[in-house]
Design brief:
The chain is mostly helical. About 70% of the residues lie in helices and about 0% in strands.
């Protein structure tokens, strides 16, 4: 297939101010396809005149898309840029911590998640993700302590109980594990 020849490069390659369409594609989230986000967010990142907040948001969204597609190094690169722009971005730290965990770099994951907790102590996802990293590292006691904090902050998430149950099971405390599994099922029967 031979398409029409372009006389000039598309606008998003020339780095103008981001168009409304690209901003919408990047920031609307579930209302657009990931394919559109992967066009919109780079256009926002690369455009001249993009504000710091928008650029940081675009790195977060594109990094999360990379993470969901298991392109871990690309995700870490975007989260690095986000954290460079906003060193106190708890979302950036949590997501980079998750990327490091998936890569098997558990100490880096725990460091990022600890920093995210310092930035935003009431973030149940930071506590939960650090619990997962401690669990992966073979430290069920620390994992349980973090899952306890996540549950204290949000007792409606079945995954928090499920994972704490897994850590209790790892310790051989099957009664506590069963209690948590039952609570997870009560919160999410599916």
């Amino acid at each position: 297939f031979r398409g029409p020849r372009l006389r000039e490069r598309p606008a998003f390659d020339r780095n103008p101010a981001p168009s409304a369409a690209f901003r919408t594609w990047c920031f609307v989230g579930s209302k657009v396809t990931i394919a559109k986000q992967m066009v919109g967010c780079p256009a926002v990142i690369d455009a001249q005149g993009t504000g710091t907040k928008d650029r940081a948001g675009a790195y977060l969204i594109r990094g999360a898309d990379y993470l969901n597609r298991s392109e871990i190094d690309r995700a870490i690169g975007d989260f690095n840029e986000l954290i460079r722009i906003d060193p106190n971005s708890s979302a950036g730290l949590i997501n980079r911590g998750e990327a490091y965990r998936r890569k098997g770099e558990l100490d880096l994951a725990i460091a990022d998640l600890t920093r995210a907790i310092a930035v935003k102590r009431k973030s149940p996802s930071a506590w939960f993700n650090r619990g997962i990293a401690y669990s992966d590292k073979g430290d069920p006691d620390r994992a349980i302590a973090d899952y306890n904090q996540a549950i204290r902050l949000n007792s409606r998430d079945a995954w928090y109980f499920n994972n704490r149950g897994n850590s209790y099971s790892d310790k051989g405390d099957f009664g506590s594990a069963l209690t948590d599994y039952n609570q997870a099922i009560a919160l999410n029967p599916k």
